[in-house]
Design a protein that fits this description.
Elements: H1 7-31, H2 34-90, H3 94-176, H4 180-193, E1 197-201, E2 204-205, E3 210-211, H5 214-222, E4 229-230, E5 237-240
Parallel strand pairs: 1-5
Antiparallel strand pairs: 1-2, 2-3, 4-5
Helix pairs in contact: 1-3, 2-3
Length: about 260
């Protein structure tokens, strides 16, 4: 036996379908918030900076070790110069003094080389530290930006969920006013084909966007108002209203 439902109940299916479509849109929005893309970009930047900072820290440690070694060498040479100068001043041997002068001259050349190397390493370390400070500032800015975007995401998601909650409540209220058989058919068609109810407007099914053939329209015209019909294209429940254009004679053009 064909399912029967009042035209008013069938028309309410369109409200139910509109709400279901909106819920689907809200679910899609919740899974594709613009903040999610922003957070993914920030996460990539944070990882890049993390690796960069680790590399910079390693470079700074290496150069600091090199500087410490040079400073140690400078201290050793300076101590040897001071020792030889002291020995030279206290020596009464011309030969010893001459030998000490030669050694002191060599040590001072070595000290000049070390001090030049020390200056170059210090400049390199200063450059590395400056770069590390910039990276640290960028990292801190990203962390702050991430926190701000996460706050915006929470607000956006809360707004979506609030609207969804209202939509679900409205859906429940409409569904409660429909007969069990009509609601079950709607749910079955929606699950199978994606759309549960379709408005017939001017002979065109809104779910498929396709105009019904004349023989199909003839079947619709001959059906009782409380007959529940199925759209031949979308397989949704075909809802007839005053907009359906069923009073037009067959063959009439629908603008």
């Amino acid at each position: 036996m064909a399912l029967k439902a009042t035209p008013e109940a069938q028309a309410r299916l369109l409200e139910l379908q509109a709400i279901d479509t909106r819920i689907q849109q809200l679910d899609h929005r919740a899974k594709n918030l613009p903040e999610d893309k922003a957070l993914a970009t920030i996460a990539a930047e944070v990882e890049r900076l993390r690796l960069q900072r680790r590399s910079e820290t390693g470079d700074i440690d290496d150069v600091t070790t090199e500087l410490s070694r040079i400073e140690s060498d400078v201290a050793v040479v300076e101590a040897r110069i001071a020792r030889d100068v002291g020995r030279q001043q206290s020596s009464s041997s011309v030969k010893d003094v001459a030998g000490l002068e030669s050694e002191i001259a060599g040590l001072r050349r070595r000290l000049d080389e070390l001090e030049n190397a020390e200056l170059a390493v210090m400049e390199k370390l200063e450059t590395l530290n400056a770069g590390a400070r910039i990276s640290a500032e960028e990292y801190d800015d990203l962390v702050a930006r991430k926190a701000d975007v996460e706050r915006q995401r929470s607000e956006s998601l809360a707004a979506v969920m609030e609207e969804r909650e209202h939509a679900v409540a409205n859906r429940q209220a409409i569904a409660a006013g429909l007969g069990d058989d009509l609601l079950a058919l709607y749910e079955r068609q929606r699950q199978r084909y994606g759309t549960g109810a379709s408005l017939l407007r001017g002979g065109v099914s809104s779910a498929s966007g396709v105009r019904l053939l004349e023989n199909e329209l003839a079947i619709v015209r001959s059906a009782a108002p409380d007959d529940v019909l199925i759209c031949p294209d979308s397989q949704a429940i075909l809802v007839r209203t005053s907009e359906s254009g069923l009073d037009r004679p067959q063959g009439a053009k629908v603008e």
